[in-house]
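pasting for ref
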Amino acid sequence: MLFYLKLLLRNAFRHKLRTLLTLVGLVVAVSAFGLLRTIVDAWYAGVEGSSSTRLVSRSAISLTFPLPLNYAQRLKAVDGVASVSWANWFGGVYITERNFFPQFAVEPASYLALYPEYRLKDEERLAFIRDRQGCVVGRKLANKFGWKIGDQIPLRGTIYPGTWSFTLRGIWDGAEAKTDESQLLFHWGLINETLRKRYPGRADQVGVYIIGINEPHNAAPISQRVDALFKNSLAETLTETESAFQLSFVSMSEAILVAVQAVSLIIIVIIMAVMANTMTMTARERLAEYATLKALGFGPGFVARLLFGESLLIALVGGVSGLLLTLPLAAAFRAAVGTLFPVFQVSELTMALQLLAALLVGAVAAAWPAWKMSRISIVAGLRQVA
């Protein structure tokens, strides 16, 4: 076995420049494949981080149409509903438009109870609930702007005009890597009080209701009961699971995601063609050597294994190097895009696919040369020596 491995290594690096260039191509292709797949995964992070015990109820017309606040009490009476909270998209600007991050006005106690994955210290949770001007943020967002407890965070309202200032009362850590840590939450009551004074017609309205259920397998009938409750009213509802709600946003970018996935596969096909050309040239140059091996008694299978082994060895080195390069590339990309992707990490599945793609490239690239060389006649091969 050791002899065989040494033979593969010597054969693989016999033409150093060609092998090095092939490796560079493999590293670039595998790392690009991994990075593009990570971008697609990041797009679906909201779906992956959703809970099966939460439903989202919104206006049946559009998400931009609010629902009355008095729906909350009626929702609590629906069979199967365990708890109810609500949230409004705020859409404020922190210093400049470049500092985009999600901000929601929520009912603090009930909302945090529905999101146990937001791990907040008890004293910080209590301080947030007690302070009408308070807010809490995810760890990732706090680190980005260097915020600490007690800091004042001013936001320029777009949907809700004016400058709003919040006191940071807590910073949550995600229970899992896929938990969103890029949001800011503050009191829904604060903006509602302001709206009552300035724009009474816009007060007592919420963007979406978050509904907690204890039996996820009954999500569909509970959703139907909720929607039936408000059917033929002035504000009919559309209730769905949280994952379905998140998927509705992802579907808006479906064409872009398909394009990104197609490009990642095309990159692998291109490097496969380059690798196949390399192995074909290698086999042609060693035609006489393979004929000599056959003359010495080595069978066609040995010749084929030599070519497959050499190709897989190069592919494995390139694949592992590309995988390792993906990690710093992903970190740099995550830093560059900021909070655009709440969760951006190279998954274990992506790393496994990178290695699998590299090995597939190595196997396919060696298939034709190995088959051809295993069938070469000794006479035809030795004629090359002459």
